[in-house]
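Lecture 7 notes: from sequence to structure.
We start with the chain below.
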Amino acid sequence: MNENAGLLAGVDEAGRGPLVGSVVAAAVILNPSKPVDGLADSKKLSEKKRELLAQAIKESALSWSIASVSAEEIDEINILQATMRAMKLAVEGLQIEPDHVQVDGNRCPEINYSVEAIVKGDDKVVEISAASILAKVERDRQMLELHQQFPEYGFDRHKGYGTKQHIEALNTHGACPQHRRSFAPVKKLL
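Predicted structure tokens for the same chain:
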């Protein structure tokens, strides 16, 4: 991306794989005159580092937006469509219109902007790294809230992924309202 290509929005999601909760997407347009040091793929950062970076991104970015699509909607339209919808909503939520959008992965949401998918974009494009951090921090926050409601599942530890502990809790307690009923381990149980 060259210097006069204009405003670039990076987009990424968190929470495609878990058995519970929303899929969350973020879109970020960074401010070239206020760079954020240490941006990287959110999966490679500690929780504490992600929290600090998320704060820095929100304070220095030209614009950022986070959108979620619920478990109920995921069950209705499938996880891929729900992810695309969350990404579209995140981009549409930006206060500034981007000139170009780069999305982590191999698929683009249908949006009214020039858009391209970049495989491993969260490692290659700082705007996508920033979006991956915001999405992950928001998704984790949602899981901690859900943990307050349903502590028996251990969402604070596994963040909704299908760990042994989570599957055991599902077998013991059944599904909570935010479990994704279209996902095999939950479907099998019901």
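Points to note: The chain has one domain: 3-142. The mean pLDDT is 95.
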